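LOG
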Amino acid sequence: MSLLTEAFLTALLTGAITAGIPLLLAGLGEQMSEKAGVLNVGIEGMMLAGAYAGFATAFACGALWPGFVAGAGAGLLAAGLMAFFAVRLGLSQIVIGIAITLLAEGLTALFHTLQFARTYPRLPAAEPLALPGLSALPVVGPALFDRPPIVYVALLLVAVMAGLYRRTHLGLALKAAGDAPAALDVAGVDVGRLRMFAVLGTGLFAGLGGAFMAEIGAGVFVPFMTNGAGFIGIVLAMLARGRPLLVAAGAMLFGACLAMTTALQVAGIDIPVDVIQMLPFAAVMAVLIAFGRRSRLPAALGIAYHRGER
């Protein structure tokens, strides 16, 4: 393998993981919500709330980990609105989700202007945690095994969520809440409470993904910086058919599309930036055409459930 090819592949894989982690976290969160029967269209706003809270906290504290905690908390707070209005009150999940996204866009832009005016301060680069032996491997070593700890945490969550869905009563209950909520109600499980738990979990994941985007991916917060990442997360969750590993694979695919600009620059290939920026959305369309018919959605997805209904 030539040095140029190795540099290109390393840059592509590194960029794919950096750009794909926020999509992975958003997709895992949305998958939990959809399994329980809630179409969480507000995930874009939850990511944006997490991005601003994470950046502002990390900037104020001079450390990244408080920012991740704050980002997850902001996503959780935004998800609380979704849980209350869409699950507790049974209002339209799509309308409430769109309202949360618009609210987050306006508030984060306003807070950024009030705090930083027209400046865009940057955070220092995150310190990587190199895994002994593995980080020295060609191509995959620097890209996979010499990254900030939050990257390893996000990848570990894939295995955690897969185990939760396949091997625990909670995973089975989440699936029943989306497929047969009335049967779950008869079994004595509070469907509303379970759905609220799933929505709050979605907000926590999405907020963490937004914080990663601002703190690790960009090192700066820019209003509206999520740029549709939450909606790609919804697509990933729908196409993954309940499998977290497929969410991870899709996130890395779209992340590679987003990272293509840097990789091509390393290889010395000049392609218009507009073409590169179009790649993720073209990939979404291609994947939907190829696999959209095979996706299986919960029977009660998007349908409000009130206890005692049959």
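LOG (cont.) second protein
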Amino acid sequence: MVDETRWLDDEEQQAWRSYLRAVRLLDEELRRGLERHGLSHTEYEILVRLSESPGRTLRMSDLASSVVSSRSRLTHTAARLESEGLVRRRACAGDRRGVNCELTEKGFEVLDAAAHSHVEDVRSLLLDAMPRAEFLQLGASLRRVADGIDPEGTKRV
């Protein structure tokens, strides 16, 4: 027996559409801001994750997982960042199959320059639009959503 579709009521539909519109508009504005620094949002996120890691280094598979990217897409993006001198990839010590990605000093400088305007964009476009408590609740709610989705897309958790 096929389950009946649980259609959204009017309020849920309005909330859903507001979410979609806000996410798309926010993403576009943040994209424009990062482009001024020659970075995509994914590239920026990669540099951030590396900057926060011990030795500014992460195993490629862990980096892919943290930025919600396939390994092949991350490999392509890391190659571009490497060609710009922002990261370098090296074989993992003790594991011939593993590869580490390391943030270079140039990469840190690019990140540092981009971070100031990016954080200001995030603050002015998102945080300033709502009380702090609402923003923190939004974060908690979205964390529950993310925790319920398998990043491989094979199943819902």
